[in-house]
Structures are given as structure tokens and as C-alpha cells.
Recover the amino acids of this structure.
């Protein structure tokens, strides 16, 4: 279970994802051996309001993070910020109705 959040406007979501995965040794030989026995999921990801300024930008960043995870062969993902409206610092997948739900499940 890995948690990834795009936290710098100076890098793309894919660059931030890659940096985080490298820091967690995802690409190491040891992790490659572990991955043959155990599933690895991206357990949390989302977009902070202080990093992106619109829901559309948040949506694009969340989808880019999802795509990076799937391209790395992770076994799945769970979007933490689906409906956690009490976390005001985050964009939520349901902020603008449910149109995002069809986006996140496409790939």
C-alpha cells in the first residue's frame, strides 16, 4: 500500500510519482522479488488545492498519477479523496458531481 500525492508545482505528477517510487525502492531488485509474491497497490492519492488551482487540473493530475501506477504494473489503486469533504485542503472526486467516476475507471 503506497501513498502518492503530487506536492510540487515544479514537477509533473508523473515526475513526483517516479521520485516517490524511487524513494520507496519500488524499482529495486528486492522489490521486484517481493512483487512476484505480493500485490502492491497505490493506497492513497489525490490533489492538493495549494498545488493546483482548478478541479480540471486536479482531475488531470489524479489521472496522470493513476496512469503512472498502472504503467508500473501496480495491482490497483484506491483514490483516498473520493468523498472526504472534511479535508478542505484536497480536491475530491465528487466535487463536481460524479462525472469524475467514469474518468477514473477508464484505462
Amino acid at each position: 500500500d503506497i501513498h502518492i500525492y503530487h506536492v510540487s508545482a515544479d514537477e509533473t505528477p508523473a515526475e513526483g510519482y517516479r521520485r516517490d517510487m524511487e524513494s520507496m525502492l519500488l524499482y529495486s531488485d528486492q522489490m521486484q522479488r517481493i512483487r512476484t509474491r505480493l500485490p502492491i497497490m497505490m493506497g492513497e492519492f489525490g490533489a492538493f488545492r495549494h498545488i493546483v488551482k482548478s478541479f480540471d487540473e486536479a482531475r488531470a493530475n489524479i489521472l496522470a498519477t493513476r496512469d503512472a501506477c498502472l504503467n508500473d504494473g501496480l495491482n490497483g489503486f484506491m483514490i483516498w479523496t473520493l468523498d472526504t469533504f472534511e479535508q478542505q485542503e484536497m480536491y475530491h472526486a465528487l466535487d463536481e458531481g460524479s462525472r469524475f467516476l467514469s474518468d477514473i475507471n477508464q484505462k
Summary: Residues 4 and 45 are 5 Å apart (CA to CA). The chain has a mean pLDDT of 87.
